[in-house]
Amino acid sequence: MRSNRWFTPWVLVIPALTWLLVFNLWPSINTVILSFTNAKPLGGGTFVGLKNFETLLHDEQLRWALLNSVIYMVVCLPFLTVLPLLLAVLVEKKLPGMTFFRTAFYTPVVASAVVVALIWQWILDDRGLVNGLAEKLGVISGPLPFLSDQWLLLLSAISLTIWKGLGYYMIIYLAALGNVGRELHEAAAVDGAGPLRRFLHVTIPGVRGTMILISILISVSALRVFSELFILSGGKGGPGGRDNSVVMLIQQYSQGFEGNLGYASALSIVLFFVTVVPMLVLARLNRRGAEA
After folding, report:
1. What are 43's strand-pairing partners?
2. What is the value of pTM for the model shown?
3. How many C-beta atoms lie closer than 10 Å to residue 278's C-beta?
4. For the CA atoms of 102, 103, 106, 112, what is the dihedral angle to 10 degrees?
5. Cα separation of 206 and 201, whole Å?
6. Which of 70, 109, 120, 139 could be bridged to 168 by S-S, CB 3.0 to 4.6 A?
């Protein structure tokens, strides 16, 4: 006679549920609690109410970090949404050598972000490959301060992010292009549509949902950027700390025995809402497009 093992599903779910509660839900709740205190890494701290959030309003470093994050997102979003799609369309064709190009474009993705950033730091240094080659060719008379100028450093980090992300989003587009019916392209070709019109009126509508997904991923990643800016700036956040990201500020305020975990937690909550806004906007646009 078969017994009614009502607890069997719970036995299977409990490990994943425990992981979720311990490593996701509780840290999130604890961050909110700490944001109302002046807690230190070694413990202690007292309730300070909204003092940490009031300090945020007058923090010049936070204003620069938010500006950098928004610039990062605004620049990365169009490049990493459009360029990977164009690459995917090119490497999707079954031509000799396309496997090599797929591998070449995807190689930066599997490389460690830290290693790639260190290589770029060496290339963009005052005595690095770019400045050395440009001086040899007579293009510049002195080295360009890629790593010491506020805006050139930010541009260098953005370029690194775009270069490293091309292959990743290209693979996502390749999967989406496989779901675009060949008969649609054939019908458009019969009607006299050229490659450009087929791309605009068949390919793009066919991968519209994927484009929205990629836009959300890019927006969140750009607003949470850390490795690129941290390594290229030598961990200092550029001249005067004006190339910090919000994540870098959280790391700076929370490190060391005298770190301010309460203020870092308040910064984390700000970062959460900053990343949620573009996600909601893009999701809303996707919903409107689907209803149209």
Report:
1. 40
2. 0.86
3. 19
4. 180
5. 9
6. 109
